[in-house]
Design a protein that fits this description.
Layout (H helix, E strand, L loop, with lengths): L2 E3 L5 E3 L3 E4 L14 H12 L3 E5 L12 H4 L1 E6 L4 E4 L4 E5 L7 H8 L4 E7 L2 E4 L1 H4 L11 H7 L1 E2 L3 H7 L6 E6 L2 H11 L4 E6 L3 E6 L4 H12 L6 E5 L5 H6 L2 E4 L5 H6 L2 E2 L7 H10 L8
Parallel strand pairs: 3-4, 3-14, 4-5, 9-10, 14-15, 15-16
Antiparallel strand pairs: 1-2, 5-6, 6-7, 8-9, 8-11, 11-13, 12-13
Helix pairs in contact: 1-11
Length: 290
């Protein structure tokens, strides 16, 4: 499991990098980072480890958190479609949905009452009117985030059509799971990857691209073997990352799919699960400390 024991009996991890999902993993139920996690980040940096994100969020949706100060410099964002350097504020690698498929997605989206979100090079674009109704799409907890971090397009579908050659990811937020199912049936068969997230979210990415390939691309950019990377998540869209990583770790609050995909399970996101990941598996020391 990537841990070797020294002569003194102390565990020493062979892992160099840990990549964390955001919602339900790095963030607690209040969308905050646990103090125990922040303290553990410092220990990881002191031990020479690399910390990263592997999230479905756009880069702009991450800027409310001081990741650079915490020691997290890199991110696989928008479900693996954008590899980003937060310190230098630049895209290191990216993948886009085929331009010819954007009109098909746009037309299918018109059949349901939904909120359309397009991501381009780490920037999130939505309509202001939709953000004001995020409760209607069962995404109300994210409304303050979207008000602070997203860019507004007068008509986001027209925006997507005008930028069809550079769309990394599309999120469709529905009013209920049944509406999401209907959208899924309309788009079934297209050479794209579809993922369910939250209660009503339908995520669309280029075929073969996921949080798993995002972790793989991040490791390639940083010249780190994938078997020396830890992936940490809690939800269905984290499953490819958990399977791709040298060690897949599920939070205690994870859904069944993530629990089954993981190699090990730690505490939940409202307690010390992240600190456990770092101290027990990334650094390889005792947990809890003291």
């Amino acid at each position: 499991m990537g841990i070797q024991i020294t002569e003194g009996g102390q565990g020493m991890s062979l892992y160099k990098l840990a990549a964390f999902d955001m919602d339900g993993t790095l963030l607690n139920s209040a969308k905050e980072i646990q103090p125990s996690a922040t303290a553990a980040f410092k220990r990881a940096i002191q031990a020479g480890r690399i910390l990263a994100l592997d999230t479905g969020r756009a880069v702009t949706e991450l800027r409310q958190y001081p990741f650079i100060e915490m020691g997290i410099r890199y991110g696989a964002c928008a479900c693996g479609t954008v590899i980003y350097d937060f310190q230098e504020n630049r895209v290191l690698a990216k993948k886009s949905i085929p331009a010819e498929l954007i009109p098909i997605i746009v037309e299918a989206s018109r059949e349901e009452d939904l909120m359309f979100q397009a991501m381009v090079d780490g920037i999130s674009y939505v309509e202001e009117a939709s953000v004001k109704r995020m409760d209607h799409y069962q995404m109300g907890i994210y409304q303050p985030l979207y008000e602070d971090t997203t860019s507004y397009a007068e008509d986001v579908r027209d925006f997507a059509l005008a930028h069809a050659d550079s769309i990394n990811k599309i999120n469709l937020y529905h009013t209920d799971p049944e509406s999401r199912e209907r959208t899924g049936k309309r788009l079934a068969g297209l050479p794209l990857d579809f993922t369910y997230a939250e209660t009503t979210s339908f995520e669309i990415t280029p075929q073969g691209v996921s949080k798993g390939t995002g972790l793989q691309d991040l490791c390639r950019v940083l010249d780190i073997p994938i078997d020396q990377a830890i992936g940490v998540g809690d939800a269905f869209n984290d499953v490819p990352m958990l399977r791709m990583a040298g060690l897949g770790i599920a939070m205690g609050n994870s859904n069944e799919a993530a629990l089954k995909a993981a190699d090990v399970i730690v505490g939940d996101n409202d307690h010390d699960g992240i600190a456990e990941v770092i101290d027990r598996y990334l650094i390889g020391g005792p947990f809890p400390l003291g």
